[in-house]
Amino acid sequence: xxxxxxxxxxxxxxxxxxxxxxxxxxxxxxxxxxxxxxxxxxxxxxxxxxxxxxxxxxxxxxxxxxxxxxxxxxxxxxxxxxxxxxxxxxxxxxxxxxxxxxxxxxxxxxxxxxxxxxxxxxxxxxxxxxxxxxxxxxxxxxxxxxxxxxxx
Length: 152
Description:
Elements: H1 3-30, H2 36-67, H3 71-75, H4 78-103, H5 105-109, H6 118-146
């Protein structure tokens, strides 16, 4: 493997681990008391999630098209397509917490904790848990791809 391909593989893995770390941190914080400090941490984590996901997507696509086995191989593999669809689904799901966290900006900028009803917090927790489940399924698909298991 050429050095540049190894560097892109490294960046891809760092971004993936960063994404998982952020999701786990969000789960922990969403299960704690929602005060000003927690709200600000959740807002920063959401930004970090977006950055990690963006890097993961760009680097992953560069690997598919330029540094690995080629796009024909990947887009011909059902597990890769499942990984990609799961990633896009997680991204779509993450819009809901992002919108909520952005709505807290006025309160946090004024040094106040946002007022969020219990049902909305439960929904945010559920979404982040679903995102983590999606990541687990992505890892499963990656393992299936690595072992060259074809279902079609």
